[in-house]
Amino acid sequence: MSIKTHRGLEPFWQKLASGKMIILVLKDGRTKKVTKNIKKVWRACEEDANVKAVLTSSMSWDAFERLEKRAKGATATDVIKNYPKYFKKIKVITSKDRSL
Question: pTM of this prediction?
Answer without folding.
Answer: 0.78
